[in-house]
Write a sequence for this structure.
């Protein structure tokens, strides 16, 4: 799925490949814990948190990987711990859900929450 046509995050989660669902459920729970359920919405065809036009964090289940759109500053803050993570500007990508480092992701989310900015 590159860009979902789902109108809710629940619908999006129902569309993802079963082998990715546990990792995406965990990621979603971490986002809700940090940003609040009222900040969750679909934006640009993916789950996002913040203003629908300029969310500060989003994630997606792409054809080849799971992508996190956190913004360059948030990823730069943990750069020394991102060895082996495919990175492009403000996004981080994992080809295998079991390789996702949820402690690293928690720190990225905490950086966004503390700074009040991320970027998709």
């Amino acid at each position: 799925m590159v860009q979902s046509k789902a109108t809710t995050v629940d619908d999006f989660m129902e569309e993802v490949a079963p082998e990715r669902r546990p990792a995406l459920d965990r990621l979603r729970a971490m986002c809700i814990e940090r940003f609040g359920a009222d900040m969750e919405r679909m934006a640009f065809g993916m789950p996002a948190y913040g203003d629908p036009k300029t969310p500060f964090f989003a994630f997606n289940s792409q054809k080849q990987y799971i992508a996190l759109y956190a913004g360059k500053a948030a990823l730069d803050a943990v750069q020394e711990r991102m060895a082996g993570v495919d990175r492009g500007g403000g996004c981080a990508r994992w080809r295998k859900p079991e390789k996702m480092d949820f402690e690293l992701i928690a720190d990225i989310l905490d950086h966004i929450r503390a700074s009040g900015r991320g970027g998709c």
Notes: The CA atoms of residues 56 and 116 lie 8 Å apart. The longest helix spans residues 21-35. The helical segments are 9-15, 21-35, 72-76, 102-115. Strands lie at 40-43, 46-50, 55-61, 66-69, 86-88, 91-94.
